[in-house]
Amino acid sequence: MEHRLLGTTGMAVSELCCGTMSFGDVADERTSASLYRRSREAGVDFFDCANVYSAGRAEEILGSLVASERNRVVITTKVGFPVGSDPNDRGLSRRHILASVEASLRRLRTDRVEILFVHTFDPSTPIDETLRALDLVVRQGKALYIGVSNWAAWQIATALGISRREALAAFSCVQPMYSLVKRQAEVEILPLARAEGLGVISYSPLGGGLLSGKYGAERRPEHGRLVENRMYAARYREKAYYAAAETFAALARELGVHPVTLAVAWVKAHPAMTAPIVGARNVEQLEPSLAAADFAMTDELYARVASLGPTPPPATDRTEEQKGVAYKGSAEKYK
């Protein structure tokens, strides 16, 4: 397992990050411990968590697992989504951020997290209010760095500008959704990350399981997240995604590689990527994701895989330029 620097932080992390969303949910405490041990054996020292995973139980389990080697691992958690029924048990206000951090640290049994992510955008709270609260958390040493997930590129760029202007702690890492079938991050978020020196740890490299080899244009398994979870079923409802999954699985068979390994390796090969987040219900399911660390992704194969998924239009929507079509004639036509 190789290590990569996380943006400009100077902090090195494993090239795969273990996601803990299953901890305390589809993976009980014993299974979670097995997932943690297997990840560590493979060289993973980077673990992503959130206060809403299993209603806080994931943080508790992760906290107990890292206790004996806390200084040898890098952990994250998140704030933003609802954690209770009270109107203030959500969002990115100073009140909620500070209260959530304290609760997360108690559950994680640690004095700090390496990265605190804002988990969602809060339209009710000004960005500068959120940034001042996060700056306080960093100054208190309760988070070493701050990151952002599920924000648009313009929101991230606005936040970076405010942080510079006001000399506040700035986002060091982004966590976008990214897979062969969900490539919107390529349009602006990943280019922004490269331009600003931000680390990138993307989630859902398997498209919610769509790229696991179990799905096709007319094929569905009896069980699975896309079958049983309404949110994921809605997120991946487009027929084109399933057609892409079928051709992708056929390519994996042609190459003699597990489709999960190929899917994770393709995400990992993006030049902006620090570490894809991989997760599983059990150790058997985790193995092909871990194998992506040793998979040799060539430029030719990367392009071949990319051709199987839907490519998003460029930020300017000038798709003719994306296809290499140049204008000819007078300057007036360049509009």
Describe this structure as you would to a colleague.
This protein is α/β, with parallel strands linked by helices. It is 39% helix and 12% strand. The protein is built from 13 helices and 10 strands. It has helices spanning 29-41, 57-66, 94-108, 127-139, 153-166, 189-196, 225-228, 230-235, 239-255, 259-268, 283-290, 299-306, 319-322, and strands spanning 3-5, 12-14, 17-19, 46-48, 74-79, 113-118, 143-149, 171-175, 199-200, 277-278. An 8-stranded parallel sheet has the order 9-8-7-6-5-4-3-10. A two-stranded antiparallel ribbon has the order 1-2. The model has no long low-confidence stretch (mean pLDDT 95).
Number of strands: 10
Q: Major sheet, described briefly?
A: 8 strands, parallel
Helical amount: 25-40%
Structural class: alpha/beta
Strand order of the largest sheet: 9-8-7-6-5-4-3-10
What's the number of helices?
A: 13
Order of helices and strands: EEEHEHEHEHEHEHEHHHHEHHH
Instruction: Please report which band the strand proportion falls in: under 5%, 5-15%, 15-25%, 25-35%, 35-45% or over 45%.
Output: 5-15%
Oligomer: single chain
Weakly predicted, low-confidence segments: none
Mean pLDDT: 95
Query: Whole-number radius of gyration?
Result: 20 Å
N- to C-terminal separation? 49 Å
Global morphology: globular
